[in-house]
Each structure stands twice: as structure tokens, then as C-alpha cells.
Amino acid sequence: MKLAFIVCYEHVKPSLMDMLRALRIDYYTHWEQIKGKGHGTEPHVGTGSYVRMNDALMIAFEDEAPLAELIRAITTFNAKVSRTDERIRLFQVPLERMI
């Protein structure tokens, strides 16, 4: 089992949600207006000249096949994006238990 944390600039969220629908991944936890800064990106903190914010999703995968498909879809999307800030980030960690 795996756990994926996905972070994207709020403007990109509709594209991410389209990916999830296309892959029939209809299970997730979603946080809006997340503050942060990634490697090589501008801050997304919601104030001053950095008014952009991020959104985050957490998805638990019992089966790794849908996760692999999502990784392929995100990789394809990111290859078409010129601004680093507008790329979707996926962080994968082991999931020991779901109750």
C-alpha cells in the first residue's frame, strides 16, 4: 500500500481533478489554500506579491496500479508545463495500515 501527497498551484487543480476523473480515482482528502514554497519556485503564501496559494490532496492506494497510472498522467502533464510553479508534485510514501 502507498500514500500519495499531491501538491499543485490552485490554478492547476482543475487539470488534476480531470486526471483523477479520467483514471476513476474518486477517493482523496483535499486541502485548499495551502501555503508553501518548493525548490526553484516562487513562494505561494497568499500575501504581498506572492498571492498565489497551493492545494493538496492525500490519496491512499491499496492497489499500486492506479497510482502508477496517476504518476504517468502527472509526468505527461508536467512535461507540457513551462513554468516550474505550475507543475504538479506527487510525494509517495509507504502506507502501513488503513482502518
Structural class: alpha+beta
**Strand order, biggest sheet?**
2-3-1-4
Strand content: 25-35%
Distance between the termini: 13 Å
Please give the share of residues in helix.
Answer: 25-40%
Topology, number of strands: 4
Shape: globular
Report the major sheet: 4 strands, antiparallel
**Rg for CA atoms:** 14 Å
Give helix and strand order, one letter per element, not per position.
EHEEHE
* Total helical segments: 2
Low-confidence stretches: none
- Average pLDDT over all residues: 88
Q: Can you characterise this structure?
A:
The protein is an alpha+beta fold. Helices cover 26% and strands 28% of the residues. It is built from two helices and four strands. The protein has helices spanning 13-22, 64-79; strands at residues 2-9, 29-34, 54-61, 89-94. Strands 2-3-1-4 form a four-stranded antiparallel sheet. It is globular and about 35 Å long.
